[in-house]
Amino acid sequence: MAKKISTAKELIRQAVGIINRTTFCGKCGNELVSKAVWDGATIKLAEALAQLAVEQQCEWKYDDYHNMYETQCGKAWCFLGGTAKDNDCKYCPYCGGVIKQALKPSKGGEG
After folding, report:
1. 46-58 confidence digits (pLDDT tens)
2. Running DSSP on this structure, what letter comes out for residue 91?
3. Which of 2, 58, 74, 77 is disulfide-compatible with 97, CB 3.0–4.6 A?
4. Three-class SS of residue 106?
């Protein structure tokens, strides 16, 4: 996993490098970024963000005794009713990772 994230970080570094290679207007000194340069940087950033979204996950396990979810990032969360999916919760509110395996309570309690 660390190798893939470093790949995403490398894509971001490349995108920033592309943007930093801009030219400046000789008259006013404003930065000039061509559409091709901007598009190239945008594509690199989009690839990196898509890769990070897939890679950074936070596994939630249901604790039936405490009626809450234990998160992979070391926190706890509880819903008044239903699961993370039932509540349209896709990302961990603590680490921002995509919630993985937010399982429904095993004993029929509220999740």
Report:
1. 777 777 766 688 8
2. B
3. 58
4. coil
The angle formed by the CA atoms of residues 75, 77 and 83, to the nearest 5 degrees, is 135
The structure tokens listed for 75 are 């926190």
**Shortest CA distance to 9 belongs to which of 54, 34, 44?**
44
**Exposed, middle or buried, 29 (CB in 10 Å: 0-12/13-18/19+)?**
exposed
Whose CA is closest to 37, among 61, 53, 21, 54? 21
For residue 63, give every residue at least 6 positions away whose Cβ sits within 8 Å of its Cβ, in sequence order, or none.
69, 70, 76
Tell me the whole-structure pTM to 2 decimals.
0.48
Where on the phi/psi map is residue 40: left (φ > 0), alpha (ψ -120 to 50), or beta? alpha
